[in-house]
Predict the structure of DMD protein.
Amino acid sequence: MAGLQQTNSEMILLSWVRQSTRNYPQVNVTNFTTSWSDGLAFNALLHSHRPDLFDWNAVASQQSPVQRLDHAFNIARKHLGIEKLLDPEDVATACPDKKSILMYVTSLFQVLPQQVTMEAIREVEMLPRHSRVTREEHIEVHEQHFSQEVSFSFLLSSCFSKVLVSLP
């Protein structure tokens, strides 16, 4: 049951991210690892909700992945009160740590508008299976990080109890 709850929470979170970044053609978030390593997804997520904070084109076209990540984390700290939980160099890799990305995106979810449409959730359900969390991955992570998973699942549960789902 906990695995199902976490998978559903991740699906809602991914739906929210995809819905929020839909208008940014350079961004296609399909997971909580590789989709974040170039820094564009974090910046697009911030810009979609707070376009007054920075010039998207300047960030997207002129900076390296580490610079873009540093920019997003600094903007989130300064304007949203989210501590810099991640080091840009740790995210700008071939495969960033999934739990770290999830925790940070959940922090953003807590402070930014949270409305998610059913269409966005259906879109995530249609993503190729390898892009989403599988039960086997969940069991493996659960065995390796039980205490972290319990606290993460609790955090997501409390966050998603507040999410608004819009029906078409």
Q: What stands out?
A: The longest strand covers residues 116-117. The domain at 12-121 is CATH 1.10.418.10 (Actin-binding Protein, T-fimbrin; domain 1). Strands lie at 116-117, 165-166. Residues 147 and 153 are 10 Å apart (CA to CA).
